[in-house]
Amino acid sequence: QVQLVESGGGLVQAGGSLRLSCAASGRTFSAYAMGWFHQAPGKEREFVAAVSRSGGGAYYADSVKGRFTISRDNAKNTGYLQMNSLKPEDTAVYYCAAALSVAQNEYEYRYWGQGTQVTVSS
Prior knowledge:
Layout: E1 2-7, E2 10-13, E3 18-26, E4 33-39, E5 46-51, E6 58-60, E7 68-73, E8 78-83, E9 92-99, E10 109-112, E11 116-121
Parallel strand pairs: 2-11
Antiparallel strand pairs: 1-3, 3-8, 4-5, 4-9, 5-6, 7-8, 9-10, 9-11
């Protein structure tokens, strides 16, 4: 089992930045790839970014490329999502998740956090 807890969400104006954190406990964090997903009201959950177990490979949804950066610190059992140039359409609940290998499909992810709200005002 891996327990994941997100933090760092909040309210920010368009063009601003936030950094989300995902603290992991339980099994070895470095044994899992990590992903971030978001879900806006009335919409399905969508892939945002993923990073490999070592942190050497990162993948992004087209909508966030060049604005968001995913990273991880295995020594701290923590993953991050740096979000810059935020837009109102980024407003959603953001979830971190862990999978055996890096993937964009949410069904590949075994463990999920409870989510953190990000609201971007125009």
